[in-house]
């Protein structure tokens, strides 16, 4: 999978070099390229923002650098990429979204800053690819970068070969809409706290039943919204 990221803080994405995704990049499973939006400016101050029409607090990202960046990165790409802009006003990014996007061969992520990007950029981008405005959750970050890091991690680990143990993906892929069951490892007693005895019983049926009960109980307590239907 090819991933392009456009940002005014490209070094934030240095963190993708480490761990799981770093290995996938080395083996060529993931080809991530990060672009500095300021390289698409032409003025001496490399300006990417301006005051909002209609007034209001803060600054808005100017459309011109975005137009040049998108032409360069997404223009004429075959197949047309999926172009993602994280936004607090976007659709919710979920595990289902991650699965969908993991099927794409080319993703372009546009990271806004300030109060966001001139709205016309999204319309322009729709002429170059399939545009998705996506929100990580109902809180406001300072820009799109941290959201894009989370999305790349969630998408990247679904690409075959990126996660070491494919069984852990099979288990997740049940997508039963419940919270996961609790996990334990050795020692069997730690600081007077015991591992639930059923997990030491060797009775695989009893373990499966207990785990399902735990999933249901935790979901009822912590995420009743998931049980609504
Ligand atoms: C991308 C900039 C910061 C966005 C409020 C401004 C007029 C009010 C600051 N899930 C999630 N949370 N946050 C983001 C995200 C924030 C971003 C950008 C993604 C780009 N910001 C920002 C909006 C406001 N808003 C315009 C109405 C303030 C994604």
Overview of this protein structure:
The structure is a single chain. The chain has 229 residues and is α/β, with parallel strands linked by helices. The protein has helices at 19-26, 63-74, 95-102, 120-125, 145-156, 166-173, 204-222, and strands spanning 2-7, 31-36, 49-50, 60-61, 82-92, 106-110, 130-135, 189-190, 193-194. The strands form three sheets. A five-stranded parallel β-sheet has the order 2-1-6-5-7. Helix 3 crosses helix 5. Ligand JDK is lined by residues 86-88, 112-116, 135-137, 139-144, 147.
Task: Provide tags for this entry.
229 residues; 7 helices; 32% helix; binds ligand JDK; 9 strands; five-stranded parallel β-sheet; alpha/beta; two-stranded antiparallel ribbon
Round the Cα radius of gyration to an integer and report it. Answer: 22 Å
**Number of E-state strands:** 9
Bound molecules: ligand JDK
Q: Order of strands in the sheet with the most strands?
A: 2-1-6-5-7
What is the rounded distance between the termini?
36 Å
Which range does the strand content fall in? 15-25%
Secondary structure category: alpha/beta
How do the helices and strands follow one another from N- to C-terminus?
EHEEEHEHEHEHHEEH
Major beta sheet summary: 5 strands, parallel
Please, how many helices? Answer: 7
Range of helix content: 25-40%
Shape: elongated
Overall pLDDT, averaged?
Answer: 94
Uncertain segments of ≥5 residues (pLDDT<50)?
none
């Amino acid at each position: 999978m090819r991933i392009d990221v456009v940002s005014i803080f490209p070094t934030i994405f240095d963190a993708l070099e480490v761990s799981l995704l770093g290995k996938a990049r080395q083996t060529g499973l993931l080809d991530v390229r990060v672009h500095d939006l300021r390289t698409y400016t032409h003025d001496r101050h490399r300006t990417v923002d301006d005051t909002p029409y209609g007034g209001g607090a803060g600054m808005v990202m100017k459309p011109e650098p975005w137009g040049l960046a998108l032409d360069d990165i997404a223009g004429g790409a075959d197949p047309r990429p999926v172009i993602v802009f994280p936004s607090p006003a976007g659709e919710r990014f979920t595990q289902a979204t991650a699965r969908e996007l993991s099927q794409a061969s080319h993703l372009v992520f546009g990271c806004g800053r300030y109060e966001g990007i001139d709205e016309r950029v999204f319309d322009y981008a729709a002429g170059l690819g399939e545009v998705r405005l996506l929100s990580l959750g109902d809180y406001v970050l300072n820009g799109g970068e941290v959201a894009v890091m989370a999305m790349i991690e969630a998408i990247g680990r679904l690409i075959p070969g990126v996660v070491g143990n494919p069984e852990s993906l099979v288990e997740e892929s049940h997508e039963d809409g419940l919270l996961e069951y609790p996990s334990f490892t050795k020692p069997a007693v730690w600081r007077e706290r015991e591992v639930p005895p059923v997990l030491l019983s060797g009775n695989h049926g009893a373990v499966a039943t207990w785990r399902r009960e735990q999933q249901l109980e935790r979901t009822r307590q912590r995420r009743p919204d998931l049980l609504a239907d």
